[in-house]
Structures are given as structure tokens and as C-alpha cells.
Amino acid sequence: MKKILQFALPVFMLLAVMQNTASAQRSDNDRYFDESQGFTHRLWYGGGVILNFLSVSGESAFTIGVSPLVGYKITDNFSVGPRFSLIYTNYRLQTGFDRVTSTNLFDYGVGAFTRYKLFRSFFIHLEYGADNEELVNGYDSFNDELITSRVLRSNAYVGVGYNDGGDIWGYDIYLLYNTLAPENNVRLPIEFRFGLTYNF
């Protein structure tokens, strides 16, 4: 229940902000719903890089990945769209006094996001998706290898970010918290992303 509330509260806050600004943006909406320019003038593109580090009591993980997305501008400030991800993790476990065993984990996923610009450069980012993740389940001391398995899991991210650049190219820096992250995972529930945007 607590995790549902952690995800639902920012969604309701975002809806309240949108409702208050909807009347002020009505003239901007007329421009967006003018189909004379076609569908593509409302699209923007982004590509994020995911970085994550973890090191606790004999285990460590380094994660790097990419998360491209395509946004559809409903208004100047409000966008929705799909996102994709491909993530690599190098996991290391100290299995003896001077011995370390490691393995490579690969995750991939698909989902949807919504983004709302609070000011010119700052935004709120919400994201929900299904990710196929590879997890470490244990250690086989006889073969000196880590045992892994795959699981399909839902992730719900809430976060804030900063976008800077001109009217066409820009860059994003944003911090996300996964409200559905399991407690016994080698990856932290916090993700730091940065990347480029086009037409945002």
C-alpha cells in the first residue's frame, strides 16, 4: 500500500498542476491541434544514459545503460510517449579471503512516460514499464560461479530533471526513484540519467 501511495501522490499532484494551467494554455493548444503541419511537428526525441553504482559488504555492482524515448507534445509543457531500455550490470561478489567472482547481467524493457515542464528548464518525469531483468540468486561454490535467473518486473519511476539547450538540441539531467523496486536487489532504487534531446 505504501508503494502505491508513493507512486499515486506525484501523479495526482501532476494532474492538479495541469488542471490549473490548462485554461492559461488554451491559445497554445490551438496551435498544437492545428493539423495543417502534420503529426510530426509535435514529436520530440531523447536518449538517456543510465549510471548506477553499489558497494556493500563484499558485493559491488556497476550499471550502465541507454534509455531512448519519443515524446508527443500535447501542449508546450506536457508530453507523453514510449520509452525503451537496455541495461548492463557487472556484479562482483567476494567469495573468499582473496577471491572475487563476477558475472554480467543484461536487462531490457519497454514502457511509457509522461513529462511536465514546471518552468522553462525544470520538469517532472513519471515513467511506468515492464522490464525483463537478470538477477543474482546465489553462489555455486563447487563451480565458483554466480547463479542467475530472469524475472519480468514492473517499475514505476518518479523524478525531477533539468533540460538546457536551444530550441532544437538540448541535454537532460534527471534523477528518478523506482517506487516498485524490490528491497533485496543489487541495484539501488535511485537512477541518475543524462542524455540529449531533439525538439523538446
Labels describing this entry:
mainly beta, Porin, eight-stranded antiparallel β-barrel, 2 helices, elongated
Describe the structure.
The chain has 200 residues and is mainly beta. It has a single domain (2-198), classed as Porin (Beta Barrel), CATH 2.40.160.20. It is built from 2 helices and 8 strands, in the order ααββββββββ. It has helices at residues 2-22, 26-32; strands at 43-56, 59-73, 78-94, 100-117, 122-140, 145-165, 169-178, 190-198. The protein has an 8-stranded antiparallel barrel with strand order 1-2-3-4-5-6-7-8. Strand 3 and strand 4 form a beta hairpin. The longest helix is centred in the first third of the chain and has 21 residues, at 2-22. It starts with a helix and ends with a strand. The model is unreliable at 12-29 (pLDDT under 50).
Describe the structure concisely.
With 200 residues, this protein is mostly beta strands. Helices cover 14% and strands 62% of the residues. It has a single domain (2-198), classed as Porin, CATH 2.40.160.20.
The value of Rg in angstroms is: 20 Å
Q: Count the strands?
A: 8
Structural class: mainly beta
* Order of the strands making up the biggest sheet: 1-2-3-4-5-6-7-8
Average per-residue pLDDT, rounded, comes to: 81
CATH architecture: Beta Barrel
Shape: elongated
Multimeric state: single chain
Bin the strand percentage.
over 45%
CATH class: Mainly Beta
Helix/strand order, N-terminal first: HHEEEEEEEE
Task: Find the CATH topology.
Answer: Porin
